[in-house]
Specification:
Shape: elongated
Helix content: over 70%
Low-confidence stretches: 2-10
Structural class: mainly alpha
Number of helices: 12
Largest sheet: none
Distance between the termini: 86 Å
Strand content: under 5%
Number of strands: 0
Mean pLDDT: 89
Length: 268
């Protein structure tokens, strides 16, 4: 333990001396050494001061890209995405342009929130990956970027599903004929239908369809007398459509039960 403590103290002392040094070439080489040794915070701090000084020099591109990678490896994803973007904007045909463009999206991807939260960063990551794919269609990183796009889109789909499910649950919570019940079931239907339109190949397609089918049925059940017939017919059609699209679904029994109940109204 004493040896480890002494080593850490020595490293900290050396870094402090380098940081205060006026020899910028030495500081730059030390920053690269820090990066190679995994001391990303030290590398990032040193490079912050050196990037502007090396602009226009042979190492200008390298220093800016190395700063971005240091921030990324240090999990400062917001700063990393901005620095990678700055690199690509400054050096669109630079040596690290392809990697920088990819890592703009990668940084935003790493900082993407869980589906329940605001998905603005997720949309930013999707746009960044899409731009990368447009700019570098033959890149070796293309498969990774495409998979990341699918993962991020799943986040957006999950967000939409949670919203639709919330409206559905609220409709059931009120459980009687009132404007809140109707509006919540209608909101569930609209949200789920929009999700299916925007993400037609989603793995959650069946789940959205279940919410739509159930919401239409319960909307009919909780409708005023003058609207019941119209809505039961719509619910019946939705159930038949569900059975045709998902004949092996566990919810087929539910759809068949709904059809029987709907027919009692629509046949009278």
């Amino acid at each position: 333990m004493l040896c480890v403590t002494a080593l850490l103290s020595s490293c900290t002392s050396e870094y402090s001396r380098v940081y205060k040094s006026t020899d910028n070439d030495y500081k730059y080489e030390y920053a690269k050494q820090c990066f190679a040794m995994g001391e990303f915070q030290h590398a990032s701090t040193l490079l912050q001061d050196l990037v502007m000084l090396r602009k226009g020099r042979d190492t200008g591109q390298e220093s800016l890209y190395l700063l971005a990678m240091s921030q990324f490896c240090n999990r400062d994803y917001e700063s990393a995405s901005a620095t990678f973007k700055k690199y690509y904007t400054s050096y669109p045909k630079g040596y690290f342009a392809e990697q920088a463009s990819f890592y703009v999206g990668q940084s935003l991807y790493q900082g993407a929130p869980e589906p329940r939260l605001d998905q603005t960063p997720t949309i930013g990551a999707i746009n960044a990956y899409q731009q990368f794919l447009d700019l570098f269609p033959d890149s070796e990183l293309r498969p990774v970027a495409q998979q990341r796009l699918f993962d991020l889109q799943d986040n957006l789909v999950q967000k939409e599903y949670l919203s639709a499910e919330l409206y559905y649950n609220l409709g059931g919570y009120f459980g009687n004929i009132n404007s809140n019940t109707e509006s919540n079931y209608e909101a569930c239907i609209i949200t789920a239908q929009n999700a299916l339109k925007n993400y037609p190949y989603s793995r959650m397609r069946e789940k959205f369809s279940v919410l739509i089918m159930k919401s239409k049925f319960y909307l009919a059940e909780n409708s005023s007398e003058e609207r019941k017939l119209e809505r039961y017919r719509d619910a019946e059609d939705e159930c038949y459509g569900f059975l045709n699209e998902y004949p092996e679904s566990k919810e087929c029994t539910t759809a068949e039960k709904f059809i029987v109940k709907c027919k009692k109204v629509t046949k009278d």
